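**User:** Here is a favour to ask of a fellow structure person. Please take any protein you like and set down a full record of it. No explanation is needed for now; the record alone will do.

**Assistant:**
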Amino acid sequence: MTSHFNPWHDVSRGDNLPHTVQSIIEIPKGSKGKYELDKESGLLKLDRVLFSAVHYPAAYGFIPQTYCDDHDPLDILVLCSVDIVPMCLVEAKVIGVMQMVDQDEEDDKIIAVAAHDISVNHYNDIADLPPHMLLEMQRFFEDYKALEHKHVSVERFMGREDAYRIIDASIKLYEDTYGNGKR
């Protein structure tokens, strides 16, 4: 069996955890395509085209070497003033978390800002964001799933300390499941 590079397992989480994390973007802001990492090949695949008039409110991806109860890496929404292309690495400053329930499973989304974008990196906590941004994120996830006849509810938005705790737990679960960076 030949080994191959897999972004989920072979890319660093970053050096200043959990304050800043390395994120891998799967979906650019504004997209109607839902792209996701194919866990076997490490390539990006088109999962589906959103059946609605909504589009992703921020760049969307995951934090490498993390693992959650939904059997996926930890999701992250990264706010940035430019479009971020899929499979781009972005150093992201963590500012909060959106806790939601998707089909009766907890599905946390870390909220962060691109660390090297002066247009957004002054935000330090989710409370600093304009209220419409949070509402836009909430409505996006609730609406696009509703049109697919799936129930999602955004339970709450929480600040960066809660996000740090969730990141640390996803790292521990990854290490318990896969070992220290070894598959």
Q: What stands out?
A: Strands lie at 20-27, 33-37, 44-49, 59-62, 75-79, 89-102, 105-106, 109-114, 152-159. The chain has three helices and nine strands. The mean pLDDT is 93.
